[in-house]
Design a protein that fits this description.
Elements (H helix, E strand, L loop, with lengths): L22 H13 L17 H15 L1 H16 L1 H6 L18 E5 L6 E2 L1 H10 L5 H10 L3 E2 L3 H10 L3 E5 L7 H10 L9 E4 L2 H5 L10 H10 L1 E7 L13 H10 L8 E3 L7 H6 L7 H10 L11
Helix pairs in contact: 2-3, 2-5, 3-7
Amino acid sequence: MRGSREPILLSRRNRSYRLILGSPYRAVFLLLLTSCASTSRDHEWSIDREPSAWEVRGLHATLWSQSAAEFQALARQAYQSAGARLNQALEDPAWSALSPTTGDRRAKPPAVILDVDETVLRNTPYEAWLVREGSTWNRENWSAWCRQAAAEAMPGAVEFVQRAQAMGVHVFYVTNRSRRLAEATRSNLAKVGLIPVPESVTLVFKEDEAAWGGEYPKTGKIHRRRHIERDFRVLQVFGDSLADFAGGDRLVPEQRRALVEEHAERWGKYWFVLPNPMYGSWQRAEIGYRRLPPSETLRKELDGLHPFRIHPSR
């Protein structure tokens, strides 16, 4: 999920922070720069210093998301599990992914709600570019990437959407992208096969949250989901961030975990989460939703760890 991500104070030219890691990480970083696929090879890359902890932090998350077979398996697992439940969802008159009910809701047409970024579209080439450039997200570079319409589909997403539409299910893509990126977003989705039946696909952008009674980012996607539910029977919801399913913005980590347990029966039946270690509200929650320099961000994240204490044997 994109759109509410705060840029962190960092530039390629300013590397005054000094959180340096040892030679094993240097080897991994060199391997990425010399061998990983990239959408841009304008530079010959070389490293004449130890990579910072900040660089390695982004490297590992992006490399796993882009290259790990386990990432591919998790994405397919989510979409195949959801697809296997579609018949059951359509046949159950009380089935609702949003509001618990015992009444017959079949008078409303069925629908599914999917986030876009890191849910149906993979932006790992953009994230890899950020790592290689030593840069961070900002509106300009993010918009430039989106307008290329070059993101690939998440594993399993196209098959699920095509199956859902073949069964008469309306598809809502509810994204935190800005409406100014609407044309590029629709073009990218269509290019990879995620708009098989155009008349049964609706794109909903962050500006729609306020238009339908909310306050973005404070209310997250709450009002957009409610607006859809007025006219549709929502069968399933997909996302990579907790706010794609429930709650609003600025929840602390303890509140986020409590919200997951509050809706424990929904995961894997109505709600399906996709893996994203690269960015998200989980990350911003750990640092109190503040804009911090890289060194302070890393210290806050380290403080959030709960390590095992090893006591020397006597």
